[in-house]
Amino acid sequence: MDRPKEKDVRYTGLAGGITGCTTRSLCQPFDVIKIRLQLQVEPIHSRSSTSKYRTIPQTIATVYREEGILAFWKGHNASQVLSMAQGMAQFTFYERFNKVLREMAIFEGHDRARNFVCGAFSGSFATFMVMPLDVIKTRLVSQDPDGGYRNAFHAVSSIYRHEGLRGLYRGLGPAIMQTAPLTGGQFMFYNLFGDVIKRLKKVPQEDMLGSTELMICGALSGFCTKLIVYPLDLVKRRLQIQGFSNGRKTYGKHFVCKHLLQCMYRVVRKEGMLGLYKGLSSSLLKAAITSAIFFTFYDKLLYSFLKGLPQMGHVIL
C-alpha cells in the first residue's frame, strides 16, 4: 500500500528481493504449466487428438508422468535469480519514483495515476535488466526432457555462441509492452482495492490492512491486469523460443516468427483469435496467487523493517 512520503526507502530492495524468491519458490509449478500451454501450437481442448497438452489437469499429469515431480521446478535456479533481481529492481525503482512524483504538482490529487506511472516505469526498467534470465527460464522450461541445455550456465553460453547477444533479449519488445501496463496496473489496482477496503471497514489510511485483506487486493490486481495484457505475454514466450526447435522435438509443431506483429498475425491465422489466449486459465490462476503472495509478503516485510524488525512470526501471520 502507499506509504507516507517521508518513509525511508532503503529497505525496499531487500524486501523486494526476499519477496521475489519466496513467491517464485511457491509458484514455479504454475509457471511451468502456463508456459507449456502457451507454446503449444495445437489446440488446447479435451477432445483434441493431435495435442500433447489438452487441459490443465491432463497437462499436470503428463508432465509428472513423463518427467517426474522435479519437472515442475525446471529452470528454477534461473527463475530464482530472475525473481530476486526483478523484485529488488521493481520495488526499489517503484518506491523511489513514487517519492519523486509525490512532489510533482501534476500528480497532486491523482494517486492512482501516480501508482500506475511508477509501476509502469519500475516494471520496464526491471524487465530490461532481467530479460536474459527470462529467456533462459523459458528455454529450460520448454525443452525436451533430454533437451539441449544442461543447466542455466550452459544455456547462457550456448545462446550467446549461436544467437549472439540478441538471442538473450528475444521478446524484449512485447515484454516491455506487456510489463509496463501489467506492473502499472498491478500497483494501481492494488492500492485502489486497498483504499476501497479501508473506506468500507473505516480503517484510517495510514494503518496497515490485515494479511487477508492484502491478499485479496493482490489477487484481484493480478487477475485484472493479466487479463488485459495476456496476448503480449503469449507472444513474448513464442518469440523467446525462436531458434530453439532442436530442443523441443517432442512438443508438436514448432512455431516460427520473426517479430511481434508477425507473431500475432500468425497466431491468429493458424490458431484463431483464441490462440492469443492459450493457457489463460492457468495464467490467471498463477497471476492471482502470485500477486496475492507477492504484495502481501512485501508490504508486511517492509512494514517490519520500518518498524524495527519485529519477529517474523508476528509479521506475516
Structure summary:
InterPro entries: MCP (IPR002067), MCP_dom_sf (IPR023395), MCP_transmembrane (IPR018108). By secondary structure, this protein is mostly helical.
Helix-strand blueprint:
Layout: H1 12-39, H2 56-67, H3 76-101, H4 111-142, H5 152-167, H6 172-201, H7 211-240, H8 260-271, H9 280-306, H10 312-315
Helix pairs in contact: 1-3, 1-9, 3-4, 4-5, 4-6, 6-7, 7-9
Q: Helical content, roughly?
A: 55-70%
CATH superfamily, by name, is: Mitochondrial carrier domain
The termini sit apart by: 18 Å
Report the major sheet.
none
* CATH topological fold name: Mitochondrial carrier fold
Number of beta strands: 0
Question: Could you tell me the radius of gyration in angstroms?
Answer: 20 Å
Task: Report the uncertain regions.
Answer: 309-317
Shape: globular
Count of discrete alpha- or pi-helical segments spanning 4 or more residues: 10
Overall CATH class: Mainly Alpha
Family: Belongs to the mitochondrial carrier (TC 2.A.29) family.
GO molecular function: thiamine pyrophosphate transmembrane transporter activity
Protein name: Mitochondrial thiamine pyrophosphate carrier
Function: Mitochondrial transporter mediating uptake of thiamine diphosphate into mitochondria. It is not clear if the antiporter activity is affected by the membrane potential or by the proton electrochemical gradient.
